[in-house]
Design a protein that fits this description.
Chain lengths: 294, 300
């Protein structure tokens, strides 16, 4: 048996396809990106080494990219403080056992299943200035004054883009949290009821502390997802009007494929990678040693 | 309301257990009612945009311009669907999506299971290191490799092909797949393989005949998750594919809707055709799909 499991040839055959794909498509290109980010290059002409100038430009060239960074942080904040609380509330209510529990769970999750392109185009029409659902609803309740071109107006474009993003992913976080809340043994809940704890107390003092590991995962996923956000913004506004809804991903695509600044665009890509890693570590660290078991 | 009741009962008869019980019952009922309202409200919020999509996919522009924006359509205009199917190449895009996704799922499951088997079951020095390095890959966003891959694929002349999507999709699905397979393999007792070995199976037979069938639940989890994330992927698809004949549904929709933007009925119908396969799959497999997403979230 042992010799069978030490068969070098078999090990190589089993692991090789993954290694080739992994190194060829993830590892090697990533280092290439780092290299490109130190160049001034339009993809065809001469490559000029410029050191960290591209990175300096990211932070000190002013508006478009600074705006993009701020926007991605705002998205992360609204995901953590709007999307996750709603998901948590829904998850706690469902996990407690209510009527139609599985129906609700199934319905909340539907938007996660749908492609962002479809969702984006659907919301584009919800926001349509003259024939959109939102303006029609507003005027039907007598608020004509509030109607506007939600995505075209610089003051509302960003909120209008955030809402579908938050809307789409509530169900995903709800599902993760629901599973965690369901995993809390029923005895804990019953013991708390016997002790006379209110619903609210049970949730905040018993259930939520035990959900901590999953809540941490949700926070990480929400924050990282916001930093990487691309699909819906690309479909809805492509960063416009006048950079108001630009995020690092959309800027990166524009910089590389429309203005052919390969070096500068690669610096943006690496910025996103570092940002994601950094925040994963920070969130992990901030919560270490606080996991509770009974 | 409940508070008032409490006050009233408290004032009249301080300690009648009967009243108390009645009160808590009322209290429970109202909180239940509030909860149901809250849950119902969110179900409405999650579903209403889709309901609206269905209604305008059956309307004509005239009907919408005349002011029927929210209401039900006058009649079901199936011609919107036939024009969407005829003009939009939707069936071609659908085919491309199915092809790319199926091959990706197959490669991810097969290669991923092979690697996970070698890492968790076979004995070699760097197995743990290899696993850790691969899992690190789950942290890498697509952005990091987009341009270099574009350049390489371009030089190799395989931009605008199915393979230019299949390979990157597989690469990015593998870390999570291997994580799930490795975790699942730990729960399978080694006696199975030992017995097979004693019966004279070689290592490949052990993998194909013994391990693969035992991995079925994990294969379902990985398969579903890979399927959905591949099906909906946009960034690689819009950068690597510009020719019509290789467009997947996501890219195809972008161009179709752009072209027919002002034709509400046709756009609505095509959007609905694009999501219908997913919704049908979800209706039949919602349990497994939710389980698969839960497993994918656990890696953190």
């Amino acid at each position: 048996m042992d010799s069978v499991l030490r068969d070098k040839k078999a090990i190589i055959i089993f692991i090789l396809p993954v290694l080739i794909i992994y190194i060829g498509i993830i590892v090697f290109p990533m280092f290439a990106s780092v290299y490109y980010s130190t160049l001034s290059w339009d993809g065809i002409g001469e490559k000029t080494f410029v050191g960290i100038n591209n990175y300096i430009a990211l932070f000190f060239n002013g508006d478009p990219f600074n705006r993009a960074i701020v926007n991605s942080f705002l998205l992360a904040l609204s995901s953590v403080f709007v999307q996750l609380p709603i998901a948590l509330l829904l998850a706690l209510m469902l996990a407690k056992g209510v009527r139609f529990e599985s129906f609700y769970r199934t319905v909340y999750f539907i938007p996660v299943m749908l492609s962002s392109v479809v969702i984006g185009h659907l919301w584009k029409r919800i926001y349509h200035p003259t024939l959109g659902l939102l303006n029609e609803l507003l005027s039907s309740i007598g608020l004509e004054a509030w109607t506007k071109a939600w995505l075209g107006d610089m003051s509302t474009a960003m909120v209008a883009v955030f809402i579908p993003i938050i809307w789409q992913w509530i169900g995903y976080h709800m599902l993760l949290m629901y599973a965690a809340a369901k995993a809390v043994p029923n005895e804990f809940r019953e013991a708390a009821i016997v002790d006379g704890a209110s619903e609210f107390k049970i949730a905040t003092k018993v259930i939520i502390p035990l959900m901590k590991p999953v809540l941490k995962v949700c926070v990480i996923l929400a924050v990282i997802g916001s930093f990487k956000a691309f699909d819906l913004i690309y479909v809805l506004t492509r960063g416009g009007p006048v950079y108001t809804t630009e995020v690092p991903s959309t800027m990166m695509i524009n910089t590389i494929f429309h203005s052919y600044q390969y070096g500068y665009g690669s610096a943006m890509a690496i910025f996103i990678v570092i940002e994601c890693l950094l925040f994963t570590l920070i969130i992990q660290k901030a919560n270490r040693n606080k996991n509770i078991t009974y | 309301m409940v508070k008032q009741l409490e006050k009233l009962s408290g004032a009249k008869d301080i300690s009648l257990p009967f009243n108390r019980r009645a009160l808590t019952k009322i209290k429970k009922k109202t909180t239940h009612g509030v909860q149901q309202l809250f849950l119902l409200f969110f179900a409405f919020v999650q579903l209403f945009p889709l309901y609206w999509l269905v209604t305008f996919s059956f309307k004509s522009n005239q009907e919408i311009f005349a002011g029927n924006i929210i209401g039900l359509p006058e009649r079901l205009r199936w011609e919107n669907y036939s024009s969407a199917l005829q003009n939009g190449d939707i069936l071609l895009y659908l085919f491309n999506s199915v092809l790319v996704t199926t091959v990706t799922v197959f490669l991810t499951c097969f290669f991923g299971a092979m690697a996970a088997f070698a890492i968790t079951r076979m004995k070699w020095r760097f197995s743990q290191t290899t696993l850790n390095v691969i899992l690190l890959g789950a942290m890498v966003p697509l952005h990091a490799v987009l341009l270099p891959l574009f350049i390489v694929l371009n030089r190799m002349g395989i931009l605008n092909s199915h393979i230019s999507l299949i390979l990157p999709y597989t690469a990015f699905a593998l870390p999570l797949a291997i994580f799930i397979f490795a975790g699942f393999l730990e729960t399978i007792p080694r006696e199975y393989e030992e017995a097979a070995c004693l019966d004279g199976c070689n290592i490949y037979q052990v993998f194909l005949v013994i391990i693969m069938p035992l991995l079925k639940p994990a294969l379902a989890t990985v398969g579903i998750f890979t399927f959905l994330s591949t099906w909906n992927e946009l960034m690689f698809a819009v950068t690597f594919i510009s020719e019509r004949q290789f467009r997947t549904l996501t890219v195809g929709m972008m161009s179709f809707v752009g072209q027919y933007y002002t034709n509400w009925g046709a756009v609505g119908a095509s959007l609905l055709i694009a999501v219908l396969p997913m919704i049908v799959v979800y209706i039949f497999m919602s349990k497994q799909i939710q389980a698969s997403f839960r497993a994918s979230g656990l890696k953190g």
